[in-house]
Amino acid sequence: MNAILHAQQLTKHYPGGVALDHVDFTAQAGESIAIIGPSGSGKTTLLHCLAGILRPDAGSVTLGRQAGALDLRTLSDAELSKLRREEFGFVFQQGMLLPELTAVENVALPLMLAGTDRRTSESRAAEWLAALGLAGKERRRLGELSGGQVQRVAIARAQVTGARVVFADEPTGALDSATSSEVLDVLLRSVAANGRTLLVVTHDPNVAERCGRVVELWDGRIIADSAGLGSTAASGNYNFKGAFNV
Ligand SMILES: Nc1ncnc2c1ncn2[C@@H]1O[C@H](COP(=O)(O)OP(=O)(O)OP(=O)(O)O)[C@@H](O)[C@H]1O
Question: For the ABC transporter domain, which residue ranges apply (predicted)?
């Protein structure tokens, strides 16, 4: 096994109390992992600490790399931003895309920020949009696309730079169930086809059911992890639906 993200004893407090309480967690390269749990259980806080968006109060996050493991604590804020741009991709429910730009400009932006020229960036962005079913819609602004199409743009943008880990927070939360299922297909297929690791925070049992592994949080602690059930295909062994009846 090849650990890509390794968290040890992650702890994060807010004025209102503890959001993460000594969490140990390892993601292997290529896994798709759903993070579930009731509202306020610490899912987003865990995702943000793993992605270097938030610094934990205690504990560590290590990124596995060929050049050697990288402890995120050793990075400055600027180095963390660079790491997020180059190694990670993000698909959130809303807010990550720029409405004044077209679909292709939104997807090209991370490449241009990394120094690729506009023409090459937009050509690679257009290939991604076509692969995700948006051929012909490249020049539309986000307001001229449906909610599901906007999420496809976000999925393309998250992966266009070759991110090794894609972090998604309720990526289908604002969509109806048919569109949500289509967008989930696109997300899971594109991540798997490119050998990436996916971490997805979700309240949706259908999303969790389709991920290879499910981690359940409760009051800032991991209380269940289907990886411990001895199966890579968790869905046969884990009572997802039960976990959502809380
Ligand atoms: N910026 C913040 N300031 C203060 N408390 C916060 C902040 N962010 C999160 N919290 C608190 O930390 C706890 C965990 O929050 P978090 O957003 O990680 O939970 P969650 O499981 O993702 O919830 P939800 O499913 O509702 O999005 C909650 O009690 C929340 O109120």
Answer: 5-244
